[in-house]
């Protein structure tokens, strides 16, 4: 099972970026799990932006389930899984993280999952907003 990196979004995304040195390739494709409900154009804008960054992508439909932190109930919803090329350079990784942060912010996502080979990173809009208030948007 892949280790899950949680905590403040700044720390989680910094951990992801810290792992990209020179040209970093993952053993599997990089995957973004983005909830669909009510996201429409914003979700397709994210897919288009990521496709431009990575020069290609594959999208498939799935269902994401998790335990809601406040109610402790199981929540399931449709998600798009966007698969991207497995090699990154620091500039590509930075553009990728900015796109994820922007999408989380504009859609008010509780969390977005990034599956990077053997690691899972979870980023949420509340933590992004708090971090940006402290230091300004990136």
Task: Summarize the structure in words.
The chain is of the alpha+beta class. The chain is built from four helices and eight strands. It has helices spanning 9-18, 40-54, 90-107, 125-135, and strands at 4-5, 24-25, 30-35, 57-67, 74-84, 87-88, 112-116, 119-123. Strands 1-8-7-3-5-4 form a six-stranded mixed beta sheet. Strands 2-6 form a two-stranded antiparallel ribbon. α2 runs antiparallel to α3 (90-107). It is globular, with a radius of gyration of 14 Å.
Tell me, rounded to a whole number, the average pLDDT: 77
Number of strands: 8
Going by helix content, strand content and strand pairing, the class is alpha+beta
Low-confidence stretches: none
**Approximate helicity band:** 25-40%
C-alpha Rg, in Å? 14 Å
- Provide the β-strand percentage band: 25-35%
3D shape: globular
